[in-house]
Amino acid sequence: MKKGKYGLTTKVLMALVIGIITGILVYNMPSGTLKDTVLVDGLFLFLGQVFLRAIMMLVVPLVFISLVNGAANMGDVTKLGRVGSKTVLFYLTTTAIAIVIALTLGVLLKPGIGLDMGAVEAVEVTMRDKVPLVQTFYEMIPNNIVGAMASGSMLQIIVFALLTGVSLSLLGEKGAYLANLFERLNDLIMKLVEIVMIFAPIGVFGLIARTFSTVGYSAMIPLMKYIGTVYIGLLIHATVVYGSMFKIFSGLSLRTFYKKFLPAMSVAFSTASSGATIPVTLEITERDLGVSKEISSFTVPLGATINMDGTAIMQGVASLFVAQVYGIEMTLAMMLTIVLTATLASIGTAGVPGAGAIMLTMVLQSVGLPLEGIGLIMGIDRLVDMARTAINVTGDAVCTTIIAKSEGGLNEDVFNS
């Protein structure tokens, strides 16, 4: 992966910076065929979408194969239950903490106070129907696994894959051939990931350049306080919450972790999709961080589905923002409701661009805040979406490393190399 003068991390970061600069320059160009047709909806769109579609092509088979492989290789079903309970507890706890941080920053920094409503163009919002909690849980069981795979219903795929893996493990010698086949398929899919990642810098450039060439200053400037508050929350969560938990529960170097995980964060930032980043996260946690396949193949796909700390921070800040813009006093009871609703909503948030903003309608509905407020922030949501997705996938990797250490599934020599 590190052939030539620059490694993948350096190439992706260079592409990110060049893409931002190029996007800003193109945004300032006069509208016309060159800008709109050739660059924005031509070259940038093509480069970004080819990379994004190539990586999304691998997500469903990768999640299914890796989870079956991981569950089958754990052998002891009680170990799978132990790892599963630790993983879910970690994800839900950090999500709740993230929302509390967001609400605290919203109260202190008041991002919605003093906003000139006339300076912001509201965007029409697609409404999210309020789904009962019990429905969220029973819909985790697929009534048609082929349909679930075709539609990319990750929770349903995860449940079926885990049941398949456990069944293979319980079959013992009878299931040895199939278990071996899944291991070979896992090697194949990871090789495909390597091939796709060769083109990551080009794809990242296209995605970022198109984003910055279409999001203008006129939309950004009035909402900079909101964007800044979200970014501060994300930074605090990544350094303080993840940093302290990582040090306490693993004893490993956080600096080493972030240095090695940076390519995955860059891909998450440019694609704004936790699902699309699964292949990269799996590759880095296993190859560079030294996590065993049986742990990472369980925790990473699950995290991309239910662990949405960055999204939760956005939802917390956005809730306070909407309340302040419309002059509605936010009570402690309302804030507690937001913590609970946003934590549960994270379970059902799809790992695709923009899903967090759609789920925000459910959070606002829970406390009676005007849904029209979301339209104010939808115009610049892509900028927030990219950063919160990077934090989402970082949480997946932090959890994976901590659990691998606690279960004896971490090669520290690889981590420290």
Question: What does this 3D model show about the protein?
Answer:
This protein has a single domain (8-416), classed as Proton glutamate symport protein (Orthogonal Bundle). The chain starts with 7 loop residues before the first helix and ends with a helix. 77% of the residues lie in helices and 0% in strands. By secondary structure, the protein is an all-alpha fold. The radius of gyration is 21 Å and the shape is globular. Helix 12 (274-287) packs parallel to helix 18. It has 19 helices and no strands. The model has no long low-confidence stretch (mean pLDDT 82). The chain has helices at 8-27, 33-74, 77-109, 133-138, 145-151, 154-171, 176-197, 200-214, 217-220, 224-250, 254-271, 274-287, 293-306, 309-325, 332-345, 355-367, 372-377, 381-406, 412-416.
Tell me how many strands there are. Answer: 0
Helix content: over 70%
Q: How many domains make up the coordinates?
A: 1
- Our estimate of the beta-strand percent is under 5%
Quickly give the structural class.
mainly alpha
Low-confidence stretches: none
CATH architecture: Orthogonal Bundle
Q: Report the mean per-residue pLDDT as an integer.
A: 82
Features:
mainly alpha, Proton glutamate symport protein, 417 residues, 0% strand, single chain, globular
